[in-house]
Design a protein that fits this description.
Elements lengths: L7 E2 L2 E2 L6 E5 L5 E10 L2 E11 L11 E5 H4 L2 E2 L2 E2 L1 E5 L2 E4 L2 E4 L1
Antiparallel strand pairs: 1-2, 3-4, 3-9, 4-5, 5-6, 7-8, 10-11
């Protein structure tokens, strides 16, 4: 798994992916991106691994998520699905703030 920079994984060139906090376009939830990974059963399937930082109203079950690289960087309704916030975050009264 690589973090912080683009590079080769599974034979292809990947976009730069800074490790840190990313905001989802729909509800503004924050996610900690851990980096790139490959599917153990299909090395051509490259994914981004991330974990939800929103604990209020969180669903029970696993918090680690994966999304294909294409889906992670896709535009939805004219907006990027995820936007980089910063390397770290701190909770605030109004949600969270990058530091």
């Amino acid at each position: 798994m690589g973090t912080g920079v683009g590079g080769r994984l599974g034979g292809g060139i990947l976009p730069e992916l800074p490790a840190g906090v990313w905001r989802h376009y729909r509800e503004g939830h924050l996610y900690e991106v851990l980096g790139y990974a490959v599917d153990a059963n299909n090395e051509d399937r490259r994914v981004v691994v991330y974990v939800g930082l929103q604990l209020d109203g969180a669903r029970p079950g696993p918090r680690l998520r994966v999304r294909t690289v294409e889906d992670f960087f896709a535009d939805v309704d004219g907006k990027p699905r995820f936007q980089y916030v910063g390397p770290e975050w701190t909770p605030t009264a109004n949600g969270a703030q990058a530091v």
